[in-house]
Specification:
With 387 residues, the chain is α+β, with helices and mostly antiparallel strands. 31% of the residues lie in helices and 27% in strands. It is built from 12 helices and 21 strands. The strands form 5 sheets. Strands 1, 4, 5, 6, 8, 9, 10, 11 and 12 form a 9-stranded mixed sheet that branches. It has a 6-stranded antiparallel sheet with strand order 15-17-16-19-14-18, sandwiched between helices. The protein starts with a strand and ends with a strand. The model has no long low-confidence stretch (mean pLDDT 93).
Length: 387
């Protein structure tokens, strides 16, 4: 049974959110952080504060208290769900995604309804746990998806979105946001009942969910048994999952030729189209001395049925973590590979349903297997563990 609850959110007092929003910590480059910090009250100062270690956490904690005290941030009077609408463009097409923010259970019992799909690393968890201990606030939400076959949740979200939003704004990446607060007891109860039988697949935020569970086990503080989550129906027309391409700081062309038959294409665009059309689930693109489509020569696959697992166990086996980087942008992948005198491996697109089946088949996939686009912004609503 999924434990999905309303909560008393802390929000920016100003209805215009454009200057306040930032991405999650793990996709904020040093250049972007510098740019966002020029905006005096941007959420990046809580999500990814300047400094190191304890001083960094203290900076965020001091700023949180200051913003609460001077009215920059306000606490909503009653528990609520928060409906979020995002308008964005992908591959030249306008898209709309609608979900809601909630407190998602992080206790041992509640975790039985949660389906992770990616392995995590210790370093990000240490950093996020340090921040949670200092702030006792969920600054950025994890991202979860769930099945809504009857459409009941989607209808409820659409009904909420007919009212006047409490806030709106456009992120630095051009994603337009609108936010509604849903506190009517009947609507809240209906959403809780609708969500109770669901299992929730973590789309993004595996480290933060694990950290919340660790924090709860260690502290048992009030409110620590849940984490801020953004939840979206699998069937939402605006839900997009992109493959995460791999960049290796070494040549892979010879190895790829041993594992697969390679066909050369005149351009990256032509390669991407051929990769998407390929019927082989383990087909991959290789950008090194041209643009190549690799179709595995052996019939041997892997239990997940996804190329990321096949690639990790074969083409990329033996690469050290420091030799690898990741991006969902194929053009950027090729550019970085050339700069590193290495290779870019383009991953075949897949669906949310395929991710669910893979997680069921093998449990955890390699890190950076998926990229649910766009990332949900930080700064829409914060969740203090104890308001």
């Amino acid at each position: 049974m999924a434990d999905v609850r309303p909560f008393r959110g802390v929000r920016y007092a100003a209805a215009g959110l454009g200057a306040a929003l930032c991405p999650p910590y793990d996709v904020i480059s040093p250049e972007l952080a510098k740019s966002l910090r020029r905006r005096a009250r941007n959420a990046v100062s809580l999500e990814l504060p300047q400094g190191e270690g304890a001083a960094r956490c203290a900076r965020a904690s001091t700023l949180w208290r200051r913003w609460r005290g001077d009215g920059t941030l306000i606490l909503d009077p009653v528990p609520a769900f928060y409906v979020v609408e995002e308008r964005y463009r992908l591959h030249g097409r306008a898209r709309l995604r609608r979900g809601f923010l909630a407190a998602l259970g992080a206790s041992s019992a509640a975790a039985r309804a949660i389906v992770p799909h990616e392995r995590t690393l210790s370093k990000p968890k240490v950093d996020r746990l340090r921040m949670l201990n200092a702030l006792r606030v969920n600054v950025s939400p994890i991202f979860g998806v769930f099945a809504d076959a009857t459409g009941g949740v989607r209808r409820a979200l659409a009904a909420a979105a007919r009212a006047r939003p409490v806030a709106r704004g456009k992120s630095h990446a051009g994603v337009g946001y609108r936010l509604w607060r849903v506190s009517d007891p009947r609507l809240v109860s209906a959403l809780r009942r609708a969500m109770a039988p669901r299992s929730i697949l973590i789309a993004d935020g595996h480290h933060r969910y694990e950290v919340s569970r660790i924090h709860h086990r260690r502290t048992r503080l009030p409110g620590s048994d849940a984490v801020l989550a953004y939840l979206v129906p699998d069937e939402d027309a605006g839900l997009a999952v992109l493959p995460t391409h791999r960049i290796a700081a070494r040549s892979l062309l010879a190895r790829a030729g041993e594992l697969a038959s390679l066909k050369k294409f005149p351009s990256l665009r032509a390669l991407e189209k051929a990769l998407a059309r390929s019927e082989n689930p383990y087909a991959f693109g290789l950008v090194e001395k041209g643009f190549h489509l690799g179709v595995p020569a052996s019939a041997g696959g892997c239990r997940s049925g996804l190329a990321v697992e096949w690639l990790g166990g074969r083409l990329l086996a033996g690469l050290r973590p420091e030799e690898m980087s990741y991006t969902h942008d194929a053009v950027l992948a090729g550019r970085k590979a050339r700069s590193a005198r290495g290779a870019a491996v383009l991953v075949k697109p897949f669906t949310v349903a395929q991710v669910r089946l893979a997680a069921k088949a093998v449990g955890l996939l390699p890190q950076k297997s998926t990229y649910f686009f766009p990332k949900i912004a930080t700064g829409l609503v914060f969740r203090p563990l104890a308001p």
